[in-house]
Amino acid sequence: MVILDRTQGPAIKSIEQFNIKQADKKQYSNGLELYTVDAGSEEVVKIEWFFLAGAWFEQKPLVAVATNQLLSLGTKTKTAQAFSEKIDFYGATVRTSCTDDAARITLYCLNKYLGELLPMIQEMIFEPAFSKNELQIFAQNRVNRLKVNNTKNEYVAKNALDEAIFGSNHPYGYYPKATDYLAINQEDLRQFHTANYQMENCKIIASGKIPSNFESQIEQLFGNQSSNYIKRKIIHPTSPSNTKNIFKALPNAVQAGIAIGKPFVSKSHEDYPGLIVANTIFGGYFGSRLMSNIREDKGYTYGIYSTIVPYINESFTYMATEVGIDKHINTVKEIKFESERLLNDKVNSSELDLVRNYLLGNFLSSIDGPFALADRLKGLLYYDIDYAYYDRFIDTIKHISAEELLSLYQQYFRYDEYTSVVIA
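User: That's the sequence. What structure does it adopt?
Assistant: Structure tokens below.
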């Protein structure tokens, strides 16, 4: 009998192999692209319809998100309640979401009910009602939500930072306003829908246990639909603020919201994988430099993080936190201190090994199962990169040196290039 010494932790072993199941691709005559990740043992599927129909493509503020949200709130033959009840009858879930770049419709269901549910999604996409009453409810709900959000320091700080980096008229820098929600009308939605919700502008990602007749169902319902989509190259010039340190008062604030960021390289840039490692050390996980200093040592906050946001047309990086109203000056000083320390001192081997193992383990969990594999595909489609990106990413995590990280910090993490916003 072997007696375990429970005073000693298990040995740390490096993850050597990653097997990423790649999606199969099929393109239909109308330009629709279908990607399938046929995997898993459960009789469930997730199907996502993606359209380049985010705020980047709208001519009137907030029309993109309104169009996307109202798709599931009634069709020409079904009220919002009738549509919802039928989805519930089959134990399915339909969700809509919209970012600055893209709009998405997601269906979760048992695969045996696809024959009943796919025609409903077809009707939802091609024949939305855009009810005046539902639009009014949507607008009022968003106005109420905005009122609440505008009392949150971190929300206000992040929006002010976006505006400072990109400009108030840029899709990535626009700060939502109540009057813009209330100004949206049905014709706005119809025009945006007609221009952007076309099959030539659509990618479908299906994951899970895919039925054998699935591709023919997609072809019949979506692949044969005519498309008169006009692809447009839309450019939105940035107009960044000249002010690097922005302070705004928020009445009755008990905490200060801090957001500090700057433009960054895109996901297709050769330095991007190394910058993920660099950012993780700086503020990208619970053991990061920012967390160790500002939470664990100083006790200024419950949490602080740094992240890279790779939009399709622009990218930026930012760090954010909320601290006591009397701690924001010291917090900003400590953020600057940690940023400058990275420019001068190489990361030691034990810290780098810890981050390597964290990132490799995190990536391993992110490819566990068909839905996760579909998410990895989504991280590639709109950036003109293929699955080889993940090979480069893994290789970078395993082999990047402290010297290479130091070079990246000196090139990309200089604090004087950041814009700092404090709301207190």
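The longest helix spans residues 132-149.
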